[in-house]
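Weekly modeling sync, notes
Attendees: S.R. (lead), two postdocs, one rotation student

Agenda item 3: backlog of single-chain predictions. S.R. asked that every request posted to the team notebook include the full sequence so nobody has to chase files. The rotation student volunteered to paste the first one in as an example of the format we agreed on. Action items at the bottom.

Example entry:
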Amino acid sequence: MFKKTTMFILMGLLAWTLAACGGGSGKTGDSGTVAVNLKAAISQVADVVEVRARYNVNTGMGSTASVLIKAAAGTESLETVLRDSLIAFAGASAGMRPSTSLSFQVTEEGQANTINPTAVGLRQSPSVQDIIDFANNAE
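Predicted structure, as returned to the notebook:
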């Protein structure tokens, strides 16, 4: 009897702990809206042919973001596409946590070469605030 009661209590505590750490989907409601706004803004940049953007806010776990951009084949300067895309990102980043670090990459269509924010002097995985500061200094 004591073993069953103890086991029941431990199982209840485990279930409660798991629910607290990752209850439901664990994502906020507007993460998708933010990603849609990012895609729309970056898609307006010259020579951008495809944008994949993701933003997830996980309850108790922080947030993650990634932006993958495909530039048109024969684009003269991937750095220019990257710079302009970072500025567009900054303008569309409302609703994002400033401390969120993200993966940001630009690839030329049909090519294997990829550049990231280090090409314009930022860290490889800059925070949203780093990109906003970059955009403010670039304009």
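Discussion: group reviewed the output briefly. Residues 97 and 128 are 7 Å apart (CA to CA).
Action items: rotation student to repeat for the remaining queue; S.R. to check formatting next week.
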